[in-house]
Amino acid sequence: MTSDVRGRVGSSGASVRHRVVSAEEGPLQGGSTEPVKGTLYRKVAADLREAIAAGAYGSGGRLPAEAELAERYGVSRGTIRQALGALRADGLVTSRRGTRRVVLGTTPVQSFAELVSFTSWARSLGEEPGGRVERVERRPADPRECEKLRLDPGAEVVLVLRVRTLSGRAVMVERSVYPLWIGELVARIPADAVSHTELLQEQGVVFADADHTIDLTAADADDARLLGCEPGDALLRERRRSTDPGGTPVEWSEDRYLPGTVAFTVHNSLATSALARRHRRPPRAEGA
Amino acid sequence: MTSDVRGRVGSSGASVRHRVVSAEEGPLQGGSTEPVKGTLYRKVAADLREAIAAGAYGSGGRLPAEAELAERYGVSRGTIRQALGALRADGLVTSRRGTRRVVLGTTPVQSFAELVSFTSWARSLGEEPGGRVERVERRPADPRECEKLRLDPGAEVVLVLRVRTLSGRAVMVERSVYPLWIGELVARIPADAVSHTELLQEQGVVFADADHTIDLTAADADDARLLGCEPGDALLRERRRSTDPGGTPVEWSEDRYLPGTVAFTVHNSLATSALARRHRRPPRAEGA
DNA sequence: TAGTGGTCTAGACCACGAT
DNA sequence: TCGTGGTCTAGACCACTAT
Q1: Are B227 and B170 in contact (CB under 8 A)?
Q2: Where is the segment annotated Disordered (chains A, B) (predicted)?
Q3: pLDDT in tens, A222-260
Q4: Residue B16 has pLDDT above 80, yes or no
Q5: Nearest residue to B151 (alpha-carbon basis) of B227, B84, B250, B228
Q6: Any bridge partners for residue B213, and if so which?
């Protein structure tokens, strides 16, 4: 019961996709795409992802046992488990005691960068990203900004308001607030630069974690003018706080999308639940 | 069932919250709340979560080194790393080589159940969940439903349309589609039952993984009538496909929320990126 | 009962950050 | 340089699923 592999891909067979990536072999890696960075388990994970995407196990099919994978790749079971853990977090496979892992879907997963940076997201779609800075302000942070950026009351921030375009079409208005030490870098960025995030990263600012809140809001005068809709129209809103690897907040942004241009997708499971549904108290205002 | 953890945390101080949970000590566990299920690393994780929520390390503060935690709890470093991995996935702490972990936030994390079940979510908020079944249909699945539920073309499904209320206020319209084997269970549920999900779980249906897509849509006639808004008004939409531990789809649901009643939050990081932003092609209709 | 993934241990070495 | 987390190994035992 070794080689089962249900959807055999090509005559070469699925087993070919499984390479031994031992240290002696050097930077070898499997597949026709980019070499994968350093660690063993990442290489294994990349190879498995590729095999799954190629349909080697079918949708709903079962993966080989951990022990078998360990032998195939010539690594320990622990390393295989690390690789499979990554696939599970991406929602590609299930896992439960007693049974082999099952392929859940073949959806390619976006990188973290594609989430934090509009530009790299657009590029990954083959769209031409664009942006126009509408306003830059330096001013004292309001209380919410202080909390989000973990600043002392009265500290100053830099606010940047931009329209973002996809192949020329305005789809989003972005209001980003930066702490001063980042804001000063941002202020030096040319007005016609496409990606602020990428330029910041070139200057050593690392985005490592982000919290996103997604809901709906009404367009204000700026939004309406920049997106070509009416004030009061509903927009899909994403508010995002990003931090660097040390946990220091580097950006607090509110992005408002024209309806129909974007959707957010999340995978979660019993083991990993990073998504939450948040209640918002009814306005419960006066008598209206 | 229970759940969580938050609540008061005595004045006993942080060091006390770290308990040795060695095997000899039996089912002991730390904290003033519910005992945590079986495994060691879950107990350790629960204890650390509690300590963080109590502010034992402050927001932005640093956790003890892995080696020290291992000694305190009397477990191996691997087990500590498993526990810390869970906290990292929840967005509670960062981690990077060379430095101790940093506390990112103290936001309590929702369980998976609170995401898949409106009822258990509402209860966790202290709100009174309610629902009224508006329509139940058994009919052939359309192509999209076949794909989502992984059914053969022409297979039948059960559709349930319900209004969901929070303390009496209608906030959401839910359209759930079930494969027949589940739908038959659903059809036997009394019309006034509050939670379909919980009843299904009592009958052995396990929800283990879910994919969520969040965007914006316009209210149709049903929505408008049930939510008390106008047709065409914007609603926050969540579409969700849930699967059981074997990877078999058990539910495909579309939930439409009145604006201002709910927001979705997600945490992701360089290591774990379960959130994605999805493009929707412009209608690119006729000549407009 | 046999096979599978889940948990846990004990140790090793390395890459990185702070000092 | 030293402490820290990241990776990897080799083995053990257990809980669960399928047969």
Answers
A1: yes
A2: 1-34
A3: 999 999 999 999 999 999 999 998 899 999 999 999 999
A4: no
A5: B250
A6: A265, B239
The answer to whether the Cβ–Cβ distance between A209 and B60 falls below 8 Å is no
CB-CB contact of A134 with A161 (8 Å):
yes
Mean pLDDT, rounded, for A46-62: 91
Instruction: Report B:129-168 residues touching A (Cβ under 8 A).
Output: 150, 166
Place of tokens 């600043």: A151
Are B133 and B194 within 8 A, CB to CB? no
pLDDT of B6 above 50: no
**Helix, strand, coil % over all residues of chain B, rounded to 5:** 30, 30, 40
d(CA B133, CA B191): 6
B46: which DSSP letter? H
Task: Give me the pLDDT at residue B29, please.
Answer: 37
Distance between CA atoms of B105 and A180, rounded to whole angstroms?
Answer: 22
Question: Quick one: tokens of A230?
Answer: 């009416």
Pairing of strands B129-140, B234-243: unpaired
Tally of CB atoms within 10 A around A119: 21
Nucleotide showing the shortest C1' distance to residue A65 CA = C4
Confidence of residue B72 (pLDDT cuts 50, 70, 90): very high
How far is A191 from B261, CA to CA, in rounded Å? 38
Largest interatomic CA distance in chain B: 76
Backbone phi, psi, residue B85, to 5°: -60, -40
The answer to whether the CB of A264 falls within 8 A of the CB of B104 is no
Residues 72-91 of B with CB under 8 A from A: 89-91
- How does residue A77 score in pLDDT terms, banded at 50, 70 and 90? very high
How far is residue B58's CA from residue B105's CA, in Å, rounded to a whole number?
9
Two tokens at A106? Answer: 């073949």
- Residue B134's CB is within 10 A of a number of other CB atoms, namely 15
The reply to whether A254 touches chain B by the CB within 8 Å rule is: no
pLDDT for the residue numbered B284: 38
Q: Are B54 and B17 in contact (CB under 8 A)?
A: yes
* The dihedral formed by the CA atoms of A117, A178, B90 and B172, expressed in degrees to the nearest 10: -80
